[in-house]
User: Fold these one by one.
Assistant:
Number 1:
Amino acid sequence: MTLHIGDIAPDFHTETQNGPISFHEWAGNSWVFFFSHPADFTPVCTTEMGRTAQ
């Protein structure tokens, strides 16, 4: 599956350390950023997330 900027991501349910959530319910009316990367590129993702936060 490919998502592009502005696409609505599919809803999903998952268990978290704070209990179960429904993605769409959790996000509400807020924007959500998805970062996807291979496990061995964690520093790259961390940099992207930090840059986005700026």
Number 2:
Amino acid sequence: MKQVKVAAALKIKTYPETCSIHKTCHLMGFGDKEPICPKCEQEKIEREKVAKVEKFKENSVRAILRRKSLVDDKDTFKCSFESYSAKNETIEAQIKQKARSIAGEYYLHPEKKFNSVLYGTPGTGKTHLSMSILKAVNENANPAQKCLFINVETLFSKIKSSFENSSSWWTVDNVLELVKSVDLLVLDDLGTEAAMRSQGDEASNFVQETLKEILDKQRRVIITTNLDSDQLNRVYNPKVVSRILRGSAGHVIDFSQVKDKRVLGF
């Protein structure tokens, strides 16, 4: 009875015609508006609610890159394929294309577990292209993938500080849970974690074990390093090196022939 009174007050008219989908539901109209099916309208509203919730979830996943990453320079977030300078038919152009190909493989095949290694001379754009790959996946993957960028030296500096600061979030356990929770990880500047080196070139036992655990927790990792294969084997033990290179066949980019972009004002 109440609905009838409301309908009358709003001058809502019920038509003898029924909905082509909901056969028993009569069409209704308001003033000179086109008649509608109340059930169809209700279903439309529900679909819009679901779509908004899904969009919120998607945006939350894509926001992880900015919210949880650990960079040594905030400008790293500005890096993209578009801003990587590469003239046609140069080594830079070949490198850029290889990086694009790797990005496509990561976002088209979220089930594939493999590492990528970008190595070579400092200042040649390894960080730039690793972030470019990550952003391409972050912005284009459907469904969205959780992407995370971690500068290795900054990470171990924070972990070291947590030893003396019980309130620090950056404990080894929290880091391991974080890297496990994402779909794609960049470990940037591997080999620069000098703050936690033992004597000589070799990384400390703690660094070795932590890196091994990180690479065990996450099987889709993009690694940038200034070290070549011989240097990697000098700095890290075989277990760590094998995990760095796991699945990297066809996903290695050599920057050793690229000139220092920082000198060139890149």
